[in-house]
User: What shape does this take?
Amino acid sequence: TGISAFDPAIALLKAKDCVFRINRDVRFSKDKSPYKNNIAGYFNRNGKKGNGAGYYLHIEPNNQSFFGGGLYQPDPRRLAAVRQEIDYHTTEFTELLANTDFVNYFGQLSGDRLKTPPKGYPKDHPAVELLKYKDFTMFCRITDEQVLSANFIEHSVGVFKAMKPINDFLNHAIEGVGEDLTNQ
Assistant: This one.
């Protein structure tokens, strides 16, 4: 059920491998309150510590909840691999980004971007705007009312299912980077 119905790599994960702890690291913070005011989990084939593209759920009061996903702050080798995959398969990637479900939930990719094309790519590259991304993430806000609704789980599964084709593309791109980086 849930994500594992359409992404079997998630089926074997345990909750403890995906959910973040509730206590805060207060060592360098002026705010010494011991607990976070949110709960969050990251689901990918290696759990919250995995470096692959996955699914993120953040629940926080006052309409600060959101769904997220994709590849956040990949190391330089993974970033280069994703850019190369976009370069080689621009049409496929732009078609995934134009998918109706993706557009309805996320609009477009989110994440930090370079101001100029990355090294090795010309300014007139047909996918130059996509190649400028440093994070390949998806983001969708949800209200407190949606979180508390009877169909929240069904809605969550729908949002995560819309992320899956992008996650698959990103994970395929980084597969060849090497197993030595998979569980860093």
